[in-house]
Amino acid sequence: MRKTLLCLLLAFGSQLPAPAQPAPKSATALPPAWAQKVVWYQIFVERFANGDPSNDPKPENMRGSFTVPAGWSITPWTHNWYQPEPWATAAKLNFNDTRSLRRFGGDLQGVLDKLDYLRELGVTALYLNPINDAPSLHKYDARSYHHVDVTFGPDPVGDNKLIASENPNDPASWKWTSADRLFLKLVAEAHKRNMRVVLDYSWNHTGVEFWAWQDIVRKQQQSAFKDWYDITRFDDPKTAANEFDYNGWVGLKSLPEIKKVDITTPRKAGKPYEGELNSGAQAHIFAVTKRWLAPDGNAAQGIDGYRLDVADQVPMGFWRKYRTFVKSVKPEAYLVGEIWWETWPDKLMNPVPYTSGDVFDGVMFYQAYRPARSFFAAVKAPLTGPQLIDSLQFQWNRLGKPFRYAMMNVASTHDAPRLLTCFYNPGQYKYKATPGDDPNYKTGKPDPETYQRVKLYLLHQFTSIGAPQIWNGDELGMWGADDPDCRKPLWWPGLTFEPETRTNFQPTTTSTFDPVGYNAAHYAYYRQLAHLRNGNPVLQTGELTFLPTKGQTLAYQRTAVQERIVVLFNLEGSPQQFTLPEKGSWLNLLTGKTVVASTATLPTLSGMALKKVK
Hints:
This protein is α/β, with parallel strands linked by helices. The protein has 2 domains: 27-205 and 261-532, Glycosidases (TIM Barrel, Alpha-Beta Barrel), CATH 3.20.20; 212-257, no CATH class. 28% of the residues lie in helices and 17% in strands. It has 18 helices and 24 strands. The chain has an 8-stranded parallel sheet with strand order 14-11-10-5-2-1-16-15. β10 (305-308), α11 and β11 form a beta-alpha-beta unit. It holds the Pfam family Alpha-amylase.
C-alpha cells in the first residue's frame, strides 16, 4: 500500500505528508537550530595527526588492559598497514592480535594544527571519538571519564601525578590536567572558527582500569562502588579460587557494564527498554557531563553536545533524565545517539523512540545511508530510483520534521568500512566486510567506476535532508575495510607512505602493492560540496520534493522562498533526459556554467545540481 501511494504521489511531483507530531512542550524538546545547518567531521584522535611526538604512548600507558610485547614501540605513521612490526613478528602475533597494540601517536595538538585545514574544507562541526583517559586506542574502555587521555596532552607523567592526587568520586577535588586544558583550548579555537564540538561517551560501560572498578576489585563487597556495576558474584575469601564475576558489554570482560536498575520492560539488544542506571554512577556521569559542557561553570567555554555510544543498551528512563540535565546546563547542546542494529545484518533500529523530543536530537542515520548505497553503488541487488525514494520517505516520514533535518547523516565511521571500500564491494552492507571474514573482500585501491559512484552518492549526501558527516580521511581518498582497516593513520599531503600490501589475506591477483597517499582531486570534490551546502541555505533547511523518474535515475528539488535547487542523477547505462520544473536560466553548481533550458540530459553515471537563476 505504501509503495502504491508513493507512485501516485510521485506522478504529481509530490512528497508523502509527514505524520502528525504532538506539539513540543518546550524549546528544549526540539533539536538546536544549528544542528541542521552543519557539515560534520568525525575525528579519531589517535589516527588523525601526531602534532607532538614527545607525548607518544608508552607501554605503561597501556598496561593493565594489555600485555605489551618486549621491544614494543610506536608504529611509524607512514608504515605499510598490513606489514607486521618487528615486535609483532618477534612475539608471533597475527594481524588481529597486533591491531589493538598498535599506536601511531595522534593527539590533540594534531587536531589543533589541522583546524584551519578543516575550516578550508568547509567543516562546521567536529565529532570526536572518545578522548577520555583509557589504555586502548579507541578509548571506549574509560580509565577516567573526567579527564582527557594523558597521551593526548603535553605532559603524560605530570598529568598522571595530578590525577592520583584527586578523589575521583568528589568533583570538588577534580583538577585540570595539561591534556584537559589543551582540549579546552581546542574547543576555544574551534569556536573562533565557528565550529561546534561534540564529544563521544559510553555511559553503558567502563574499562577494567576505571577507578571505581579497581576499588571493587580490591575491596569486593566492602567497596563503596559495589552497586555501580552488574556484578553477579563476589569473591569468597574463604576459598582459594576467585569467584568474582560480572557482566561485560556483549560479554566482553574488559568492558564491565554499569548496573541497570528498576527495569520494567524486556531488555533486548536493538530495542529500547524502560529502566534507570544505578544512582551513584548516574550522579558521577552527570558531574562529568557538566564538566565538559560548562567548565568551571562557564557554558560558553564548553563543548556543544555529546554523541552517546551503544544507546540501545542504556535504559530510556536514564536517557530522559540525561536530556533534561544536559539542556538545563546548555539548552543549545546537541545529543546524538548511536542506535544501529535491531537484528544484524538485516534490520536496522527504529529511531522514533529516541527522536521524539524527550531523548536525543538526532541519531547516526545509517538508516538513510544503507538504501542510498544500494542505489548508488554497484551492489548485487540494486534499488531503482522509485525504490530508493520509497525507502527514504519511510525513514523521514516517521520522524517529526525538526528531527528529520537534525539527523547526522553518516556513511562511513570508525565502525564501518570506508566509503570507497564499501562501494567497491558489492555484497550486503557491513556483512563479512573484512578480509578475515571474507578472503575475497577487496581491500585495495578501488577502480575508477567506484570513485565515480562515490562522487554521485556524496552529491546526494550533501544536498539531501539532514546534516552530512565526513569520516576523517575519506576526503583524502582513503580506503579500507571494516575495523581495523577503517582506522588507518590519515594520508596527509606531504607525507610519503610505504606501498600498502594489497594481498593481505587474499591470494595474489594482479599486483602485490598499492601506492597510497593524498588524493587531491577527491579532496577538492569534498571541499566543493561542503562549500556548496554552506553557501546555499536551501540545502540545509529547504523542503525536499522528489520529481518523477524511473529506473536507475533520481531527481529532487530543494525549495525555499524564491530559492530552488534541482539535483539529478543518472545511473542508467545510457544518457537520460530530465524535465526541469520550469524553463528558465539554471546555474550548474558543479561547473559554474549557466544555461537556459527546460530539460537536462545527463550522461551515464553522472549527476548535476542546478540552481534557478532569478
